[in-house]
């Protein structure tokens, strides 16, 4: 795959506040890339810099190897789907979609053909003459996507496009967006604070916090091998435990040594260990090294969430097995369930 | 909740007495002749026939011409100002809008007198011109002086609604237009202008309404020969004493304005 | 490029604001001028502020403007808010109907609203004054309150009041404790709008008030006749007050937090002040006629030494309600619309009309011992033979005021036709009055100015049309005085009294009455038929023709006195050599205006409108 966009050491200051602190990121053709992070982490600013609505304070934006950070948005081969869609209320559905094409002074019949094709793709056939302000949120969303895609951009930028939709339509749109991306075969850069959304749709997830990139990787990498405590706690629920990497494949925490699959740390380096709640099994006390008492059990639908108090901390376990409060239990996990990561001072 | 319905009753009565009845009185006077006594009337269409005479038609024509001209100039000058203000940071926006509105709170007559002193043949502006070695220009008692007075007084009524519609406009719509390939000019014509039309129509209505019916400003800055429909009505009541004809003109003016307003409303809906 | 762009934007904003503030700035600067000139700054002084403080009329007007604005704002805000809340709960038909009616005063031209209210009050037989002005202001303010409050009410959750009542609030409590606080912003905006509209109103107040009740706008409008920088002083004070109020209102949210308790007390104090103000206003100007010894005098604007009024009030322990009119016709309109006065000071032909239409009562000359002071030449004229009804006040002629440095003395021989001399095209003022203008045309053509011959009138009309088309004259009102003093144009048709004053201010000018004859006019004091203070009215007239009063009156106003001693003193003193002070009574072609039959009068009015409405 070819590199399409390169962000090089991007920084951005608003007044005296630094919102981006040196972003380096390569974005490839046909990739579905998600910028994930809590609000204020700089993900939207990064997107707006790529779109051209903001100029970086420092650093470069390369598009196909050409620096574009000073280029106005209307000269860039990218299009955006806005957070609240930003549909033009004075234009109907078809006019909204045709907006960009009309500006290019395209032939009328070509335009209507393209508009029709787009409406078909987003499942809004026959909506041409509708008033956009009277559409439902999901429908507006589709119009916004069609309006952007009809211009055949190299990259589509999506700024929390599903944020305003309710849970059910949201799920449905996630699937559809992915389908559309595969159909048109262009790069999508997607901004969200919803980790589930990020994991289920993306080829690449970029986790950001405080204006910095925390980790770049596939959804599985990000989930299974978080590089630091922030990523681990932001992506899914975890038990995070401080420990020591005794040597390759051997880690020590809670007073015991465990075999693991991680290597490449220095011997006796202080590290942190992530144990995902669904990776822990509740067994009889004598079958496990770590033992504790069940303090609380909550039914969550598919599984139970059980809090187990040990000598040093409380573990969270997701399991389909029931365990009554007050029972003494053991916690069991295999070497592949232990994820070792670098310890970060500030988290 | 129904108990609150009764709250409108006082105003219903009040509005009937002080808004509806007076209009009926105007109509009554307009269709009758002779005298200022309501009881002695006899029906006539004479007052309306009289209005069709060329002189009066030219008065109405002149009023509309001036009204339209004032409105267009206010729009031409006021829109850019509202636009620039709406681009400023929020704090300066509030200040600038305040600065635009303050003069409206100062007596219109006083400001008009000040213009008389500024524009007269030996007035302040001509004195300054003389100091610069430019020969004085006659400005008072011309279309120019009347327009200056009207625009200075009425332009804020254009600026405020336009600014309101511009400032509450969703910024992402403008970004969306840029994003879809519109340059600054195209973004303005295809999005910003279109979306500010309700404000523009509001402003046009206000300014046109005010400038078509004014009689004080043209009288002071235009002289007695500047006869507009407002002056015509005033003179019928105050100096000529023909209340019936005056009422007829008022009625015609009210109807014309009503037609104009409903046209504007229709345009607003179509947009 | 970008910076340039920004620079031009800011420049544009500054230029626009300069345009708005230029007149205000001029007003403020010239309020500190030491001389009367409104175009030349001669030095700093506070003299106009002193004069303003001494000017009872202006102070009264400020009081009227402020109290009317406050009361109208309070009432229309309450009425409007209550109605807006009720509207949101009303059935659709009622709602639409009321909203449409409510829109009428907003969409109707102001002048139409003004006239409709005037017709209402006069057909209901209301005495025009404080109360009618207040009612009219409430009438046009309330719709603005409703339009700014109603959208806020509509945006409220309809369950709010229900929730409050569910929690035990009575409907009234739900209203005051829940709904009103939620729509506070709309109410405040509406109240502000109402106050501004009311405080600044001219047109509606002008038509509906009377009996000496004037707001600032009306006083200002009446001040046109003479340069009067006290207006500037007044407006400077108004501007400063407004700016201070604005600053305060921006600071209020800060102060409010600190002193919420104080606020309550403030409200109470404010309402107490308000009640006192209303009562005082109503007592003082609303029912003024009810109290003993009040004399209502109706005179032309800027036509009396106002200190004489105070002197008279003191001497005779009474109160004078003094009101001014712009023209005799305006006075007649007011009179015929049911307004009552005790003493009027109209012109000859109007007196003749008033006598004919039985508006006046005969004077009791025995009660006027000062009659001996009157000039012989001013009594027993055709408009009132034997002076049964009228006592002469001022007199004079109509003539041409010309700039000696511009007008060739040879051209004066043309008489009135000087006004058609193309040499002076665009350089002259006509007087915006139908009778005076037709007088000029008729005299120029050699006819009587009192003609009823339609052909002659038509010919005169043609003369005026031709003059208008060839000469481009300005048909000015009393602003001619200021303009001629400043030397703006070379020629002007003026009354002799104004001429005297103008010449005394600008010696480049001189005055002459054409040999073709002119209008020789007399203004005189008369007593109305329904005068309630007949004795006091006689005392007043007698007082005005005393040697002392007449002298100070003619000195102040500049018109020719009808009292011999004053006339002679001025003729040889202040106005020595000013020809306009001495009316030329030798020319047999001079005439006095006679009463016109309504048909003829209306013909003149119509033709004059046509002359002006090119």
From TrEMBL, chain A:
<keyword id="KW-1003">Cell membrane</keyword>
<dbReference type="InterPro" id="IPR027417">
    <property type="entry name" value="P-loop_NTPase"/>
</dbReference>
<keyword id="KW-0813">Transport</keyword>
<comment type="subunit">
    <text>The complex is composed of two ATP-binding proteins (PotA), two transmembrane proteins (PotB and PotC) and a solute-binding protein (PotD).</text>
</comment>
<dbReference type="InterPro" id="IPR003439">
    <property type="entry name" value="ABC_transporter-like_ATP-bd"/>
</dbReference>
<dbReference type="InterPro" id="IPR003593">
    <property type="entry name" value="AAA+_ATPase"/>
</dbReference>
<dbReference type="InterPro" id="IPR013611">
    <property type="entry name" value="Transp-assoc_OB_typ2"/>
</dbReference>
<feature type="domain" description="ABC transporter">
    <location>
        <begin position="5"/>
        <end position="235"/>
    </location>
</feature>
<protein>
    <recommendedName>
        <fullName>Spermidine/putrescine import ATP-binding protein PotA</fullName>
        <ecNumber>7.6.2.11</ecNumber>
    </recommendedName>
</protein>
<keyword id="KW-1278">Translocase</keyword>
<keyword id="KW-0547">Nucleotide-binding</keyword>
<comment type="similarity">
    <text>Belongs to the ABC transporter superfamily. Spermidine/putrescine importer (TC 3.A.1.11.1) family.</text>
</comment>
<dbReference type="InterPro" id="IPR005893">
    <property type="entry name" value="PotA-like"/>
</dbReference>
<dbReference type="Pfam" id="PF00005">
    <property type="entry name" value="ABC_tran"/>
</dbReference>
<dbReference type="InterPro" id="IPR008995">
    <property type="entry name" value="Mo/tungstate-bd_C_term_dom"/>
</dbReference>
<dbReference type="InterPro" id="IPR017879">
    <property type="entry name" value="PotA_ATP-bd"/>
</dbReference>
<comment type="function">
    <text>Part of the ABC transporter complex PotABCD involved in spermidine/putrescine import. Responsible for energy coupling to the transport system.</text>
</comment>
<dbReference type="GO" id="GO:0005524">
    <property type="term" value="F:ATP binding"/>
</dbReference>
<dbReference type="InterPro" id="IPR017871">
    <property type="entry name" value="ABC_transporter-like_CS"/>
</dbReference>
<keyword id="KW-0472">Membrane</keyword>
<dbReference type="Pfam" id="PF08402">
    <property type="entry name" value="TOBE_2"/>
</dbReference>
<keyword id="KW-0067">ATP-binding</keyword>
<dbReference type="InterPro" id="IPR050093">
    <property type="entry name" value="ABC_SmlMolc_Importer"/>
</dbReference>
């Amino acid at each position: 795959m070819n590199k399409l966009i390169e962000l090089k050491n991007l920084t951005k200051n608003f007044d005296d506040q630094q919102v981006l602190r040196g972003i380096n990121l390569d974005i490839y053709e046909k990739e579905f890339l998600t910028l994930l992070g809590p609000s204020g982490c700089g993900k939207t600013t990064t997107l707006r810099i790529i779109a051209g609505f903001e100029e970086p304070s420092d650093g470069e934006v390369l598009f196909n190897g050409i620096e574009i950070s000073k280029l106005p948005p209307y000269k860039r081969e990218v299009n955006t789907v806005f957070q609240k869609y930003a549909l033009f209320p004075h234009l109907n559905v078809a006019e909204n979609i045709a907006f960009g094409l009309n500006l290019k002074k395209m032939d009328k019949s070509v335009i209507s053909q393209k508009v029709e094709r787009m409406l078909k793709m987003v499942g809004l056939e026959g909506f041409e003459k509708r008033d956009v302000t009277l559409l439902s949120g999901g429908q507006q969303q589709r119009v916004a996507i069609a309006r952007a895609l009809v211009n055949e951009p190299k990259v589509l930028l999506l700024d929390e496009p599903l944020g305003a939709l309710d849970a059910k339509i949201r799920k449905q749109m996630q699937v559809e967006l992915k389908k559309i991306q595969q159909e048109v075969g262009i790069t999508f850069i997607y901004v969200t604070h919803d980790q589930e959304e990020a994991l289920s749709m993306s080829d690449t997830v970029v986790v950001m916090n405080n204006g910095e990139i925390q980790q770049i990787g596939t959804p599985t990498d990000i989930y299974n091998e978080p590089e630091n405590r922030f990523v681990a706690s932001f992506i899914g629920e975890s038990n995070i435990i401080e420990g020591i990497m005794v040597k390759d494949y051997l880690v020590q925490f809670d007073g015991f040594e465990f075999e693991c699959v991680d290597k490449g740390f220095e011997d006796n380096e202080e590290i942190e260990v992530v144990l995902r709640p669904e990776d822990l099994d509740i067994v009889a006390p004598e079958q496990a090294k770590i033992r504790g008492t069940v303090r609380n059990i909550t039914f969550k639908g598919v599984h139970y969430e059980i809090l187990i108090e040990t000598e040093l901390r409380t573990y969270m376990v997701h399991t389909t097995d029931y365990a009554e409060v007050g029972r003494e239990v053991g916690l069991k996990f295999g070497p592949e369930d232990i994820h070792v990561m670098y310890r970060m001072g500030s988290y | 909740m129904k108990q609150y319905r009764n709250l409108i009753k006082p105003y219903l009565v009040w509005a009937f007495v002080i808004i509806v009845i007076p209009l009926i009185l105007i109509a009554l006077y307009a269709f009758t002749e002779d005298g200022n006594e309501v009881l002695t009337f006899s029906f006539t269409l004479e007052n309306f026939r009289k209005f069709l005479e060329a002189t009066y038609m030219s008065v109405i024509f002149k009023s509309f011409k001036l009204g339209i001209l004032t409105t267009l100039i206010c729009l031409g000058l006021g829109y850019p100002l509202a636009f620039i203000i709406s681009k400023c940071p929020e704090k300066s926006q509030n200040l600038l809008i305040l600065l635009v509105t303050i003069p409206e709170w100062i007596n219109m007559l006083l400001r008009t007198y000040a213009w008389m002193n500024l524009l007269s043949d030996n007035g302040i502006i001509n004195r300054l011109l003389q100091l610069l070695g430019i020969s004085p220009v006659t400005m008072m008692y011309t279309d120019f002086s009347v327009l200056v007075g009207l625009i200075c007084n009425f332009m804020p009524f254009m600026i405020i609604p336009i600014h309101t519609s511009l400032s509450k406009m969703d910024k992402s719509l403008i970004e969306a237009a840029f994003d879809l390939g519109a340059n600054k000019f195209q973004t303005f014509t295809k999005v910003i202008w279109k979306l500010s039309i309700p404000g523009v129509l509001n402003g046009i209505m206000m300014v046109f309404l005010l400038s078509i019916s004014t009689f004080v400003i043209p009288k002071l800055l235009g002289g007695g020969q500047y006869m507009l429909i407002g002056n015509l009505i005033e003179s019928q009541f105050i100096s000529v004493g023909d209340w019936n004809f005056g009422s007829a003109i008022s009625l015609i003016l009210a109807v014309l304005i009503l037609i104009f307003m409903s046209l504007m409303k229709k345009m607003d809906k179509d947009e | 490029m970008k910076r340039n762009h920004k620079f031009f934007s800011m420049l544009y904003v500054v230029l626009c604001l300069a345009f708005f503030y230029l007149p205000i700035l001029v007003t403020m600067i010239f309020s500190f001028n030491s001389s009367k000139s409104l175009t030349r700054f001669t030095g700093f002084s506070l003299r106009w502020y002193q004069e303003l403080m001494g000017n009872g009329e202006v102070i009264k007007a400020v009081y009227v403007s402020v109290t009317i604005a406050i009361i109208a704002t309070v009432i229309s805000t309450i009425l409007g808010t209550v109605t807006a809340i009720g509207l949101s709960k009303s059935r659709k038909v009622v709602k639409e109907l009321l909203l449409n009616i409510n829109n009428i005063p907003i969409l109707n031209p102001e002048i139409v609203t003004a006239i409709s209210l005037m017709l209402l009050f006069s057909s209901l037989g209301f005495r025009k004054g404080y109360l009618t002005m207040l009612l009219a202001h409430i009438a046009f303010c309330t719709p603005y309150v409703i339009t700014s409050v109603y959208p806020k009410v509509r945006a409220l959750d309809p369950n709010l009041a229900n929730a409050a009542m569910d929690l035990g609030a009575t409907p009234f409590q739900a209203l005051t404790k829940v709904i009103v606080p939620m729509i506070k912003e709309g109410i405040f905006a509406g109240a502000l709008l109402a106050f501004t509209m009311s405080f600044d109103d001219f047109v509606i107040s002008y038509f509906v008030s009377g009996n000496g009740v004037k707001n600032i706008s009306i006083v200002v409008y009446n001040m046109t006749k003479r340069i009067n920088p006290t207006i500037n002083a007044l407006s400077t004070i108004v501007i400063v007050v407004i700016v201070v109020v604005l600053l305060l209102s921006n600071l209020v949210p800060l102060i409010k937090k600190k002193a919420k308790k104080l606020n309550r007390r403030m409200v109470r104090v404010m309402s107490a002040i308000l009640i006192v103000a209303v009562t005082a206003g109503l007592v003082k100007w609303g029912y003024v006629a009810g109290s003993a010894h009040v004399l209502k005098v109706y005179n032309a604007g800027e036509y009396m030494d106002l200190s004489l009024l105070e002197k008279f009030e003191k001497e005779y322990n009474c109160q004078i309600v003094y009101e001014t009119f712009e023209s005799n016709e305006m006075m007649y309109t007011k009179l015929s619309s049911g307004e009552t006065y005790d003493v009027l000071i109209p012109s000859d032909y109007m007196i003749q009309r008033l006598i004919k239409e039985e508006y006046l009562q005969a004077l009791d000359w025995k009660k006027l011992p000062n009659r001996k002071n009157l000039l012989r030449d001013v009594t027993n004229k055709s408009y009132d033979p034997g002076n049964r009804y009228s006592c002469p006040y001022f007199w004079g002629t109509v003539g041409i005021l010309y700039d000696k440095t511009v007008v060739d003395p040879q051209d004066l021989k043309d008489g009135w036709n000087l006004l058609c001399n193309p040499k002076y095209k665009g350089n002259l003022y006509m007087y915006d009055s139908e009778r005076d203008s037709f007088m000029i045309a008729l005299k120029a053509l050699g006819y009587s100015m009192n003609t009823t011959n339609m052909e002659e009138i038509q010919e005169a009309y043609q003369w005026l049309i031709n003059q208008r088309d060839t000469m481009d004259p300005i048909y000015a009102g009393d602003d001619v005085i200021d303009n001629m003093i400043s030397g703006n144009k070379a020629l002007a048709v003026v009354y002799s009294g104004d001429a005297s004053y103008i010449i005394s201010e600008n010696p480049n000018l001189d005055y002459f009455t054409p040999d073709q004859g002119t209008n020789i006019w007399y203004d005189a004091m008369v007593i109305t038929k329904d005068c309630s203070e007949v004795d006091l009215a006689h005392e007043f007239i007698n007082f005005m023709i005393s040697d002392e009063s007449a002298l100070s009156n003619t000195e102040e106003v500049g018109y020719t006195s009808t009292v011999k001693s004053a006339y002679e003193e001025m003729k040889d003193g202040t106005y020595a050599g000013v020809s306009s002070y001495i009316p030329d009574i030798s020319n047999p072609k001079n005439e006095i205006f006679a009463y016109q039959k309504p048909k003829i009068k209306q013909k003149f009015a119509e033709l004059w409108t046509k002359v002006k409405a090119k």
